[in-house]
């Protein structure tokens, strides 16, 4: 049966950090005449996929890769690039092993191969105030002709003041990388557990959102994106909280991502228990605002300033995927939106794999209220039509 949604027309392209993801900033439709009910285009049946998507070794065989905290962009060369928290995988000619910041490449979003690393051979940059290392939750943004990689560095423990955010740059989305080190740590910026950076570029301005447990905050970087605009003290005073429970707790919002569409900024957030294997309650919600700095509201008009707020984008399913969260949004060649996120796969072959996060993708639909969700709000199960890749 063909399910039907009310689509708002015209639909504009995703706005994020790269030119290929830029969108119009026109106003959202304001009358019934500007919307039309159309059948869902679920994707390209000639590019099928099933979750979790596949990772390949250089010899063409597949391997399980434990992807957590994925970020994805489409570069000027037409390829998709995936960044994630440190993991073990086959690293090209380097063989199987640990990688602090692996980079994967795909032409179709459904088949991935390792193509580089931001820290392999440069592990000395994976430490700041002491020798405890942990590189998590990267995001990559094109600023001018340069690709900037922002990452969480856990130095001294997950909730330590030393946990913070660093930056590296490259002329390509896969390296080589020039490391600039720390932008700030939790103690310096005055935000507990400063992790999960996301960077949004608009009209020559570079903005960063970040946070976990202490809500989501926003500040501005300089025009290169490699320093805080005006310095640390300026941005420490200017930073603003744009989503929070107003209390510090583990299930508070984290993993922010912003998409601009039809004149609105859509703020995607993850909430719930992220890391408890197939018992995880992690899920994605979204609010929107006419201003980058908020306020962000759910479709019911309530601010997303507490638990059970916003509109659900994807949530766990006991058989199809648990702990569904930490998302990004990219587009295919037909302009369809695709949600990139991690999940625990209850149907994986081994208990270890079942309790290890890995990569999921799903078509993102826009409902009659102008809010995004995956079909049925659950991870897809079985073979599905994939993204359109025309070249």
Summarize this structure briefly:
With 391 residues, the protein is mainly beta. It is 4% helix and 41% strand.
Overall average pLDDT: 88
| Head-to-tail CA distance between termini | 31 Å
Overall geometric form: globular
> Order of strands across the widest beta sheet?
5-4-11-10-7-6
The value of Rg in angstroms is: 19 Å
Give the tally of β-strands: 28
Low-confidence stretches: 1-16, 18-38
Class of secondary structure makeup: mainly beta
Question: Mind summarizing the main beta sheet?
Answer: 6 strands, mixed
Can you walk through the features of this model?
The protein has helices at residues 186-189, 232-238, 351-354; strands at residues 4-8, 35-39, 44-49, 54-56, 62-63, 71-74, 80-83, 87-90, 96-99, 102-106, 111-117, 135-143, 146-153, 164-170, 178-185, 198-202, 205-210, 216-221, 240-243, 254-261, 264-271, 283-289, 311-314, 322-331, 337-344, 358-366, 372-374, 384-386. Helices cover 4% and strands 41% of the residues. It starts with a strand and ends in a 5-residue tail after the last strand. It has three helices and 28 strands. The model is unreliable at 1-16 and 18-38 (pLDDT under 50). Strand 24 and strand 25 form a beta hairpin. The protein has a six-stranded mixed sheet, with no helix packed on it. The relative contact order is 0.16. The longest helix is centred in the middle third of the chain and has 7 residues, at 232-238. With 391 residues, the chain is mainly beta.
